[in-house]
Amino acid sequence: DRMNPTFFKFQFKNVEYSSGRNKTFLCYQVDIQGGSGETDGLRGYLEDEHSGSHAEDAFFQQVLAYYDKSLHYTVTWYMSSSPCTACAAKLVEILQARKTMRLNIHCSRLFQWEEPEIQAGLKALVRAGCKIRMMRPVDFAYVWSTFVENEEENFTPWEDCQDNYDYYDERLCDILK
Questions:
Q1: Among 16, 38, 49, 56, the one annotated catalytic
Q2: At what angle do helices 116-127 and 161-175 cross, to 10 degrees?
Q3: Residues 6 or more apart from 69 whose CB is under 8 A from it?
Q4: Is 56 a known active-site residue?
Q5: Where in the numbering of this chain does the CMP/dCMP-type deaminase domain appear (predicted)?
Q6: Which of 10, 64, 90, 123 is 20 to 30 Å from 111 at the Cα level?
Q7: Three-state secondary structure of the chain
């Protein structure tokens, strides 16, 4: 199941003013190692509206509800927006409880990054072992080719994609100092 290309282009566009972009889209890849056999990874996407909860929460309810502490999980998310305060706090708890899980979050935009509680949440995530970075143009191309109904079309970055990445990357680096 792949994302509609119009949704991707609107929701993942890394603009500073995200008017109308009030849902979070989360594309995920889970690599699982260990155990008796070769374990397949998981891949797909979630969005807030259809999950009944925030996409981050829905991931742990619907995709990775079962956790085997004898296995090693590498979870990579490509998100349209960084986690809110409540989701950041829940993710910290999950990372502390699931010692064999690594979480990498690649964000298109920073959600309300000026707010002190949002900044504190991002810092707490990093302290808990989460790797957070902004999506580069190459990441948008990867998400396009992997998670979007692209009809074999190549991804064409929007005009200010690189500039917006630079802007958000600088904000995130300032927050995580």
A1: 56
A2: 80
A3: 98, 99, 100
A4: yes
A5: 3-125
A6: 64
A7: CCECHHHHHHHCCCCCCCCCCCCCEEEEEEEEECCCCCCCCEEEEEEHHHHCCCHHHHHHHHHCCCCCCCCEEEEEEEEEECCCHHHHHHHHHHHHHCCCEEEEEEEEECCCCCCHHHHHHHHHHHHCCCEEEECCHHHHHHHHHHHECCCCCCCCCCCCHHHHHHHHHHHHHHHCC
